[in-house]
Design goal:
171 residues, alpha/beta, 5-stranded parallel β-sheet, 3-stranded antiparallel β-sheet, 6 helices, 8 strands
């Protein structure tokens, strides 16, 4: 059954706010045959990726690639900006560099993992030693990859973590 919301600002029987519906990627407008109200049928929400990377060139490259694959991408060059985006809500997954100016990615990962409703975390690092990967996973990252990472592999890992999160939330 498709999720719908009235265009007049109401909510669905599922209590989906219209603001949420407007953030959806694809929709069509149709008339409900029962009460002749205009309804918006939504295909699927657009996943929001928070990309925390201090290297501007790499951040821009990854952001453009993920946006081209249908994701909404929020960019942050440090943990302060990342925390602001997280406080606003709506983030589906965090792609987080370990080495950041000021507070490092590991401490942000630790605080996100401590939250019960935390989002999946994909750690990126130039440090590829086994101890670095183990540490990242033990403090709360859901996946850990070594840079440079091919864009298609990044996409595959993001999608896999989002699928995993969907399965976990259904339990």
């Amino acid at each position: 059954m498709a999720r719908t919301a009235r265009l007049d600002g109401g909510v669905t029987p599922m209590r989906m706010p219209v603001e949420t519906v407007r953030r959806m990627q694809r929709f069509t407008v149709r008339r409900n045959s029962c009460n002749n109200r205009r309804l918006m049928t939504v295909a699927a929400p657009t996943p929001v990726v928070l990309l925390v990377e201090d290297d501007e060139v790499l951040r821009t490259e990854m952001s453009l690639y993920l946006a081209g694959q249908g994701f909404e991408v929020l960019e942050a060059e440090d943990t302060t900006v990342a925390r602001r985006h997280l406080a606003e809500g709506g983030v589906s997954i965090v792609v987080l560099d370990v080495n950041l100016p000021g507070e490092d990615g590991l401490s942000l990962c630790r605080s996100l993992a401590a939250d019960k409703g935390a989002v999946p975390i994909l750690m990126l690092s130039a440090m590829g030693e086994p101890i670095d990967r183990i540490l990242g996973l033990e403090i709360g990252a859901d996946d850990y990859v070594v840079k440079p990472i091919p864009p298609r592999e990044l996409l595959a890992r993001v999608r896999a973590l989002l699928r995993s999160e969907e399965h976990t939330s259904e339990l």
